[in-house]
Amino acid sequence: MDWPSAxxxxxxxxxxxxxxxxxxxxxxxxxxxxxxWILLGGLAVLMGLSVYLAATRIYQVDECNELxxxxxxxxxxxxxxxxxxxxxxxxxxxxxxxxxxxxxxFVPARLVMVAIFWLNLVxxxxxxxxxxxxxxxxxxxxGLPPRFPFWDD
Length: 153
What we know:
Layout: H1 6-9, H2 13-18, H3 27-56, H4 61-74, H5 89-96, H6 102-127, H7 144-147
Helix pairs in contact: 3-6, 4-5, 5-6
């Protein structure tokens, strides 16, 4: 659409802008924008809480076993391991490669596990076939808060 200039119509500039046939801004679009920002803010809070929980949670036995196998894989001793080496140990072995202390094992490994957790959630949302920034696209994330065990500190 071509916009008339003030010189074409002979009217002052403000009169031309006031007489335009452009659609006024709808309150629905601002509500939608606000809801998207609220959802993104909520998701950022959940991500922050999951990283906080990963940093402060007590170490579990299964997690330690995963890291032992990842360390065996990182040091090149996989042929001596009698058990099964799963796919999770490959990114964990990359994360803990060169670590000499237990803190250097657990902190990067937990961050990798949190990243894998959020990657899985994004892939679940993509698998629904909905647009990610739509209300139905955010529905897989609606059940997240009960999945974070805040009582596990």
